Amino acid sequence: MEATNTLDMMEQPIKVLLVDDHEMVRIGLAAVLNTEDGIEVVGEASNGMEGIRLAQAYKPDVVLMDLVMEGMDGVETTRRLLELYPDCKVIVLTSYLDDSKMYPVIEAGAFSYLLKTSRANEIADAIRAAARGQSVLEQQVAAKMMNRFRQPKADAVRPAHEQLTEREMDVLKCVAKGQSNQEIAETLFIGIKTVKFHVTNIFAKLGVDDRTQAAIYAHKQGLAD
């Protein structure tokens, strides 16, 4: 009986959620991916909020995420989605290759980054790789990242808070207001464990030891509301 259950688990298809504001893109992706062995498109969302709602309903293994959408963009959607479901793998599928979009979504936790010029089999292979825990980067994306890391680091002359992610900055502002972890969780609609994780990262990046020092830093830098 145990062997049968293991076999059944292995044969479960990879559940994929599509998040893209172009209906024809979603229709085309769903049609192609549903013909691939071991892959099942379980939902389609036209914006970030709908994507989060469908993720709560379907618990996808992989999310194909567009970046530029009305309302909540792909970066924020990725961040919030992974706060709720850290085991989910987000594959960015976009037409954009500029740094202002690529690096923020990778920092937000995107697992792979593909361009919409990718062939159907390449997207399917990236989905299977993500399910195995393997990241896939478009060749042009990998080249840009390598070039970025080859550049001299300027962190030593940059203000410490520039190392914070957008969400960490939100948490820091709440800390500066004197909010507790519970109050921050309620303000930002995130879990208490996520708040503690961000606070720990903030302390490390700012080089402070406690909330008081973090709050003082925020006020001195003009970061507090």
From TrEMBL:
SMART domains referenced in this protein's UniProt entry, alphabetically: HTH_LUXR, REC
Pfam families: GerE, Response_reg
Biological process annotations from GO: phosphorelay signal transduction system; regulation of DNA-templated transcription
GO molecular function: DNA binding
Residues carrying 4-aspartylphosphate: 66
Keyword Zinc-finger: no
Domain Response regulatory: 15-131
HTH luxR-type domain: residues covered: 157-222
PANTHER family linked to this entry: TRANSCRIPTIONAL REGULATORY PROTEIN YDFI, TWO-COMPONENT RESPONSE REGULATOR
Name used for this protein in its record: DNA-binding response regulator
The species this protein was found in: Paenibacillus nasutitermitis
